[in-house]
Amino acid sequence: EHDDLFSLMYIYNNAGMINSYRGDYKTSLDLYRKSLDLALKLGIKRHEGIIFGNLAATYFYKGDYHKALEYCLKGIDNAKLLGDEVNQCHLISTIGVIYRKLGQPDKSLECFEKQKELAKKMNAMNLYSIAIGNIAFMFTLTGEFEKSNEMYEEAVQLSTRTDDKISMAVNYSNMADNYKYLKDYSRSLELFKKSIKICEEHDLKFHLVSVYCYISEVYAEMKKIEEALSYSEKCRDIALELDRKDFLLKCDLAKTLLDNSKPSAERVKFLLSLDKDSLSEEEKASLYKAVYKISGSKEFKKKALTLYTGLYKKLKYYDYRIAMEELS
Fold first, then answer.
1. How confident is the model over 186-216, as pLDDT tens digits?
2. CA R_g for the chain
3. Minimal CA–CA distance to 130: which of 99, 85, 104, 96?
4. Which residues contact 322 (CB under 8 A, 6 or more apart)?
5. CA distance 319 to 206
């Protein structure tokens, strides 16, 4: 019976991972909890730690960052108890990304530096590659694109060497976003399409949803509206499947801004009908900016500028500064 339960514990965990990558988070979480229950029953501490990390990652993909942080901290305690530096390194990385999402860049960068040093100490090149990519993204946020791209090039080489498909897809798309900011649209599209190819081949929907969204933005900047709307619709399809409300909002804004087939008043009315109480400050700013761009309303221009100014004072992110300049 012990061997059967041991095998079942791993079966639940592996099935949970497959469903998480496909974006079926409810099924994934249920399977992980079943695996965790068996690990607790069998007293297998190391597997408990693995499940804590998997639960954290799935809550992160789902957008529940506070729940993800809770499981990361449980996983860290477990990893320290067992002296498991590999799992500790993974969890520190996830915590860093969570802090970034929660608007705490200093804590985020501190985690990524810890992750890099720990990975270097272990000579774990796959984890070192992830750390380099994480730090590169922080430079993107502050507009230091050349420095960021240098680090991404290193991260791509390392992730290719270790055949880490997820890291390769993430690094390609993040570097593509940098080239979008630099107005090198040809290079940006080339890199986004490399990321899309990996994501589609390996069914990585949790990342594909963002790549479809951001390649749509490149086509929009190039005034290729048909292509922009096509990728935005692909993003919407996956966002609906994954219940990613953040990307659904981005798709609503993109379609309303790009599709001129409906009168401006009707498009503005649609945007203002969205549930603003559930939106973050950044999402509200994006919404008000879209309303201003369609209607020319000084009221919504002022609302958007006020929000972006507050965000920039707090975080100093490049995106917010550019938005402020556009609205000034």
1. 999 999 999 999 999 999 999 999 999 999 9
2. 21
3. 96
4. none
5. 23
Is 204 in a helix, a strand, or coil? Answer: coil
Question: Other C-beta atoms within 10 Å of 68: how many?
Answer: 23
Helices (H), 185-317: 185-201, 205-221, 225-242, 245-258, 264-272, 281-295, 298-315
Does the pLDDT value for residue 2 go beyond 80?
no
**What is the rounded CA–CA span in Å between residue 137 and residue 93?**
13
How far is it, in rounded angstroms, from Cα 122 to Cα 126? Answer: 11
- The arithmetic mean of pLDDT across residues 60-76, rounded, is 94
Residue with tokens 């749509």: 216
Neighbours of 34 (CB within 10 A): 18
In DSSP notation, 234-268 reads HHHHHHHHHT-HHHHHHHHHHHHHH-TTS-HHHHH
pTM of the entire predicted model: 0.85
**32 neighbors 61 (Cβ within 8 angstroms):** no
Q: How many residues are given for the chain?
A: 328
Give residue 189's identity as a one-letter amino acid code. Answer: L
DSSP state at residue 279: -
Residue 52: which residues within 8 A CB-CB, separation 6 or more?
Answer: 36, 71, 72, 74, 75, 78, 91
> Under DSSP, is residue 23 helix (H, G, I), strand (E, B) or coil?
coil
Q: Pseudo-torsion of CA 20, 26, 31, 36, nearest 10°? A: 100
